[in-house]
Amino acid sequence: MTNQKQKKKKKNYVPSRLNLLFFAVFLLFSALILRLGFVQIVFGEDYRKEVDRTENVTVNTLVPRGKIYDRNGNVVVDNTPLNAITYTRMQSTTQKEQLEVAKKLSEIITMDIDKIQERDKKDYWILTRPEEAAKLITDEDRKKVADGDLAESDLYDLQLDRITKQQLDEITKEEKEVLAIFREFNKGYALTPQIVKNQDVTAKEFAMVSEMLTDLPGVDITTDFIRSYAYGTTLNSVFGNVSTSESGIPSEKIDEFLARGYSRNDRIGTSQLEAQYENVLQGQKARVRNVTDTGGNLLRQEKVYDGQRGKDLILSVDMELQQKIEEALIDEMLKTRADPNAKARFLDRAFVVVMNPKTGEVLSLAGKQLIRDEEDGQLKIYDNALGAIQEAYEPGSTVKGASVLAGYQHGVIQPGSYLYDSPLYIGRAPNSLKKASYTNMGSINDLTALERSSNVYMFRIAMAIAGANYSPRQPLYIPPAAYDTFRSYLAQFGLGVETGIDLPRESAGFEGTDTSLPGLLLDLSIGQYDTYTTLQLAQYVSTIANGGYRMQPQLVKEIREPNNGEGLGRVVEPFEPKVLNRVDMSDSQIKRVQDGFIRVYHGSRGTAKSSTMKEFKPAGKSGTAQSRYIEYLPNGERRSYETLNFNLVGYAPYDNPEIAYAIMVPYASTDFNVTGGISTRIGDAVLDAYFNLKKERAKEKPEEEQTVEEAEQTSEEDTE
Fold first, then answer.
1. Which of 243, 271, 364, 397 is catalytic?
2. Is 714 a residue whose pLDDT tops 50?
3. 471 is catalytic
4. 330-361 pLDDT, tens per residue?
5. Whole-angstrom Cα distance, residue 710 to residue 705?
6. Within its chain, how far is the Cα of 446 from the centroid?
């Protein structure tokens, strides 16, 4: 009985709990429905607009590039501000609306109409003369579209083809002004500012546009920048070029840069340092979020990031030294050309590279070229600094230091070894090939061979390395592999291989390919077969100067943050000296060649004994090489002339080298009795410029204001 009462009580209790649950659910649904109704009725329009909106992030391209300084903190490449007028097209803007804005703007500013193309005129004619344009399409054309033989889009192409010259001539000068502006409006993307005019914008134009911005939808004013060069054309070929706002990204690079987040009309470095360090110099562009509705109408702009100009490059180059060396190059070239005894008719270029042999820093990279103007017949001087890394010539005897060291390493000679210098005759008489020095020197050792520049001493080294058995007036067999062996020794110094400089398109020089003639290996040993650049010679002599370490040449010392105030920003990335390899020769062997190089300048029979700058204790090696100059006549005929290259490599002071230098003067003379005085004189100018600048700066700067580099250098000298 008790159990039945408990079951009945339980049954009555469960339905009451369900009823409470159902009632609570009913209340919740009622509240939800009321809330939804309230939102729909009161805020529905606002939320619909919110849903319809889209966000587009655009990039302001008008961010200044980073500056370029020389090693002493002098601005070399800067940004000059320009007044600029821009246009930003909305996604919903029609061509007719753009045309109306262009007409208003044409009443305020003047535009260059010479850039207008025929296609621009045709598009404008169709847009502004719709009724006449419609008449260019026949009923037959429309029937072809209806039949599927033509696409609707093909009709526009037919209109373009059928516009006559007379119809295009209807476009007035005033209309061309409008067209020039309209043309710029349509270059960019929607919501991306496009520069309409940034050259020769007058103060009046800038002010009037500023006052009328409300009547010119999409038009704005801003500050643009172009590159400026504090030292004129000095090193311009090394700095490289930057594309314009009109040209934007070159077509061959468009995919690469779009993938990196650039816009098509962005300006980029297109060559040399500007291209090599594009990621550094470009800077962080300003970002603006454009909030638009589904119709593409701009609702508002929200600035996401103000942007920052590019980081700065600090070069290793000393621009004052650079200018003095360039002046010396020009002076010596012009004087030598004017000297009838020099027989320098084809002398048209010269190159100098100056390096710090301990760090690889390039202190000067100079090159000048003389080109005769076709109009007035006068010689014009052009910067050709790039030629020092891209043009390769026969180096002549400058490489004999490497040849002697190759002999040491291979074990065919030892320091102090004597060899007999007299003419060699290769092949059977009477067709024997004579290979000789400029004079018979008799029995000489390695130091004398370097001092007097013996060819035969180097020939005997090359033959011994090749394992060749020389007999006078008998055939001489040189194994083809001997060329690779000998070049491997030269490559340790940077000869015949890329130096690793931080510039694109460096030349590694050119190797002779014929290995069948025995005399060619002998020529290789005296710098008469393969060709090298001036920079390769500078790296080679630096390796000898510093005791055997091949340093990577560097033009950029460090990267710094931009500083809007005075002075330089903090260092972001310093470039430490980089050793590419240590030559496989002992210190004593390298010291032996250094002694030979000292005798070249200071010995009684040294080939550079005419130097007037021995007070700076130079050491080095001169070199004269036979070369061939090709003259191109106006009628297309080519004439070939035998000429001489006058070259020189060196360093100073020889007991603690601060600089190493290489000089190449191709096609310097057609007279084989002329000596290479011009290269020695240019070398003297390099020594004079560097050490006198050092003295002048030491006088001007108190000891406490010494740079870290100068302080370290002074410390080294004190230690010694």
1. 397
2. no
3. no
4. 999 999 999 999 999 999 999 999 999 999 99
5. 10
6. 42
